[in-house]
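User: For documentation purposes, I need each entry recorded in a consistent format: the amino acid sequence on its own, followed directly by the corresponding structure tokens. There are two entries in this batch. Please keep commentary to a minimum and don't merge the entries.

Assistant: Recorded as requested. Entry 1:
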Amino acid sequence: MNGRVGCAIVSLLNNIEQHHILRRLSDEATVFMAALKAIETAIKYATSNLFSYAKIITNSRSVLQAVHNPNNDYPPIRQIKSLLTSSATKFDLIWTRAHVGVVGNEMADSYAKKQLPKMTSK
């Protein structure tokens, strides 16, 4: 969005928002990197809040394919795999098409679009 890259996650319980987190990435970051950061943020959020189970829904098929590829040794992918295996939380990573009415996915997209222009990168 205007050269800015970021991501958002939304935690839902019975389709009601419980919490959301926004992350601004450097302007050089790719959409792939933003999707990785969103998944990493969701894993850390669920783990730190002691969720027994979390469903992470993303519209980035390429990120899910990379995470599920046992030969992918890209450091951010390794980090996500490590977080998944070391967490007591059970995770399901699920792909959805963008903009098809998946509540959490639409909310995260909306947060990112509204807030990203106001945020600065770290």
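Entry 2:
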Amino acid sequence: HYTAVAAAAQKPIVIYNIPGRTGVDMLPATVATLAQNPMIQGIKQCGSLPALSDIIDRTKHDAFNVWTGEDAQALNIKTLGGMGVISVAAHLYAHSIREMYAALDRGDITTVAALQRQLLPKMAALFHFPSPAPTKAALNALGFQVGSPRLPLLPLNASQQQELAHLLGVPELSAIEAEVLA
């Protein structure tokens, strides 16, 4: 499938391996084969750290980039030699994620650890309900018109929005100090 998409594309593509959404998990060997195609320049890999590490090891000599799709692995992927994260949380906390990576590049582990500890509960909160409903609810509350999730996913109801706000540490979703506005 990805080979056919790459052949039809006019620009290089990034493949997605999100078994939780597709019910299919590409093996690292399959990813390594696809990585040899110059029109396939990377992967968003959702799954275990051992699988990420295996894919990075198998593709490190190719012009191929590996990103995690798991926000909680944003730091781990860099230490394994990957590019970073294609992030849900970055819709709201882009500055903190960028600063965590900059601190890692500087070797400032104290700042990295502090940012990671601040981000992890927020990252988890954005997956407390089926994604992308929580992120869309937060962005809509902040005035961004991102609409509702596509069916069969449903938007968060008022009670769920309040619970999400609590998990994010704010009295209501409109009180989030989203870094998209900074």
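Summary note for entry 2:
DSSP finds nine helices and four strands in the chain.
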